[in-house]
UniProtKB/TrEMBL annotation:
Keywords, alphabetical: Membrane, Transmembrane, Transmembrane helix
The name this protein goes by in its record: Putative integral membrane protein
Record field: transmembrane: 6-23, 35-62, 68-86
Pfam families in UniProt: DUF2304
Species for this entry: Actinokineospora spheciospongiae
Stored InterPro entries: DUF2304 (IPR019277)
Amino acid sequence: MSSTYVIGLIGSVLVLAGIVEMLRRRQLSEKYAVLWLVVGLLLLVFTIFPGTLSSIAALIGVAIPTNLLFFVGLIFLTGVGLHLSWELSRLEDETRKLAEDLAILRLDVEQQRQDRIEP
């Protein structure tokens, strides 16, 4: 076993352990958990069986397996960034609507107080 293999294996196990620990502490939402667990498991599989990435790269026609890994990672991170931007936009809209509703409710409460004071 080469030192690169051992380092990769330890790194993969640490990534998976980190994901599981974040889930256990409820620091990672369940809707993202499956995605990150799949990524962690794929990382572990590619570490344990390094020929798998080479086989997939040869099957697709990519000359260097590392290029395939970087390309898939780029696509994945682009998708994650796009999804997070969508979530942020949705939450900003929801926050704006809640702030408007709160302002209306405060105005109603203030008017009711005024009505009680001035009969």
